[in-house]
Amino acid sequence: MLGSTIVRAGDDVPVAVETCLRWVICGPQTPSQLPTPTVPSDKSADTECYQLPRKFWEHEAIGISSEEEQSLSGLEREEFERNISFNGVRYTVRLLWKRNGSTLPNNYSVAQKRLSLVQWKLKRDRKRWREYAAVIQSYLDNGWAEARLG
Q: Which of 49, 67, 93, 123 can pair with 84 through a Cys bridge, CB separation 3.0 to 4.6 Å?
């Protein structure tokens, strides 16, 4: 990392050291060499620096979520905060439901067909069946799913 070339200008002054990343200045600094801390007084530049990341992420999210989805009303935020809990390991929160939301269609028959197709594929491929069973077992072991008989 460090090269063999070191340039010294005298005692108690920084030295130049050649590294594989080019030259580096290191060593002690006298109080007169230390830079005076400055704080920018231009409020517009300061505000712009904070707005740049926000603008970037808003631009990146185009087509992913609408303005309506991004903002929570006061009531939604209150409900969200009221329903969030921490059990010592992870946070859980109930899903927010629209008050006058549409009813979902009964897709039981579609789910049955998909289940039958998965079972058919698993019967044909024992290796895949073992992998599938291991994943489902890990869901049960971690509490991410519950066994439902009947």
A: 93
